[in-house]
Specification:
globular; single chain; Gyrase A, domain 2; 470 residues; alpha+beta
């Protein structure tokens, strides 16, 4: 694992225009001083010594007494985090939903067996290590088999890939490279459910020092050693950009106790969870992704008000009225694969929640053509994913935090998102249509169906199925 702070430099155009360039802490200090001075930016910048920026930061900080959080919120920091588990990357996104950033995509990158993280830094108990390694190896071998099979299926039945015919018939080198990438994407999208959550991925985030400080508190207070290690490394790199804003980037008793309480609550949910789809010998592995949708309109509002709010809505970024913005929505599904959970979790608005209790295992069986001879093979390939999900459930029942490292990307868990109606509509429009991942499209289509049952006046005003290619 490696974390690297990357500084932001002014562009040539900015320098040519004579615009100021400040360090993250100096930017925060200048912003803090700005609210106590009526003289404007130039007057503050005149007090900065270009030859000693650190002294200038200290001189401004000595003049004012602000809360740490408000100052830290004005210091932008970019960090690149190489080699953390897919699970921890998901967890970080859950803690930092408004951060800007990217993560290595299982839809475009082939994850190799050597990217499985070692058991010891993850905290896997010594008594479990041999079994864990063997099961993860089985999942990775099954992924290779499934990937080759899906690739062959796409070649045999090209209509399944939904790749435009004009691209297939274009002999140019550029078109053929794009065609090959899309064929790989088709296979990756359906085989990736067998990838372990303990594989190493890379994550890049840009957020304020305040965001990084709060993330450090969460990670340093976590019982898993990987989280603590990453939290400490983030704190060290953050010190390069904002050393004066680090005093709260520490473990806290409140957060540690809260995380432990949530783990125990999840263990109780796991204890009540049926094993019917995950236990050895189960005939079916997949739980139906039944959607849930709870809606609370503002006082005095009617369904016709929602339709009126969409009358100028001609694309997912277009105008939506105030009633929709004031309507509260809780939506989700009884079972979402971890592969999709990672992306659904990254939507910025509202609050997301999953107890991460395994409920089933999804392996894209619904993507096979009717009567396909591959169906029994797919069930056999899915067995390691089923077994890994079951082992995760067993360990979660014991409140073992390392249970997350037994999951695969096909492990299904419950998930819900609380937000406003305009944000729900945006997500539904973003995630449906030929341009969307097939599983996102299914989930959001099902949730929209419940919306239209309650508000039929909005049918045709919500632009379902218009997603751009990913």
């Amino acid at each position: 694992m490696r974390i690297t702070q990357v500084a932001i430099r002014p562009t040539e155009a900015s320098e040519a225009a004579g615009r100021p360039a400040l360090t993250p802490e100096l930017l925060a200090a200048t912003g803090a001083r700005y609210s106590r001075s009526g003289d404007g930016l130039d007057a503050i910048l005149e007090k900065i010594d270009p030859a000693n920026l650190d002294r200038s930061v200290d001189s401004i900080f000595k003049m004012i007494d602000y809360g740490h959080q408000s100052i830290a919120d004005m210091a932008p920091v970019a960090l690149f985090i190489d080699g953390i588990s897919i699970w921890l990357a998901y967890h970080i996104w859950a803690l930092c939903p408004t951060a800007g950033g990217q993560e290595s995509s299982t839809r475009y990158i082939r994850f190799e067996p050597q990217t499985l993280l070692p058991a010891d830094p993850l905290g896997i108990p010594e008594s479990d290590v041999a079994h864990w390694r063997d099961l993860m190896a089985q999942c990775l071998a099954a992924f290779d088999t499934a990937y080759a099979a899906w690739l062959k299926l796409g070649e045999t039945y090209p209509e399944l890939t939904r790749i435009p015919e004009d691209l297939r018939s274009d002999p140019s080198g550029r078109a053929q490279k794009r065609l090959e990438r899309m064929e790989r994407n088709y296979a990756f999208d359906r085989a990736r459910y067998l990838l372990p959550a303990a594989l190493a991925t890379n994550l890049m985030l840009v957020m304020s020092a305040r965001g990084w400080t709060q993330l450090c508190q969460q990670l340093l207070s976590h019982p898993l050693p990987e989280a603590k290690t990453v939290g400490a490394a983030i704190r060290a790199e953050l010190g390069l950009a904002a050393p004066r804003l680090l005093r709260h980037a520490t473990e806290t008793e409140s957060i540690a106790r809260g995380i432990q309480a949530e783990l125990e609550a999840r263990a109780a949910i796991a204890a009540a969870e049926s094993e019917s789809l995950l236990a050895p010998g189960a005939a079916l592995f997949e739980r139906s992704p039944t959607p849930i949708l709870d809606i609370r309109l503002p006082s005095g509002a009617s369904p016709s008000d929602l339709a009126a709010d969409l009358r100028f809505h001609d694309n997912r970024y277009a105008w939506i009225g105030a009633t929709m913005q004031r309507t509260m929505v809780r939506f989700g599904w009884e079972a979402v694969a971890l592969a999709e959970l990672r992306d659904l979790n990254r939507h910025r608005s509202g609050s997301k929640y999953s107890p991460l209790v395994p409920r089933g295992f999804y392996a894209a069986a619904d993507q096979l053509p009717a009567g396909s001879a591959l169906e029994p093979d797919l069930r056999r390939w899915s067995e390691p994913g089923r077994a890994a999900s079951y082992e995760a459930l067993v360990r979660l029942r014991r409140a073992d935090p390392t249970s997350v490292y037994w999951m695969a990307l096909g492990t299904q868990v419950a998930f819900e998102h609380c937000t406003a109606a305009d944000r729900f509509i945006y997500e539904a429009e973003l995630r449906t249509g030929l341009g969307a991942h097939f599983r996102y499209a299914r989930h959001l289509h099902d949730a929209l169906a419940l919306w239209f049952e309650r508000f039929p006046e909005t049918r045709g005003l919500v632009i379902e199925g218009a997603a751009e290619p990913e």
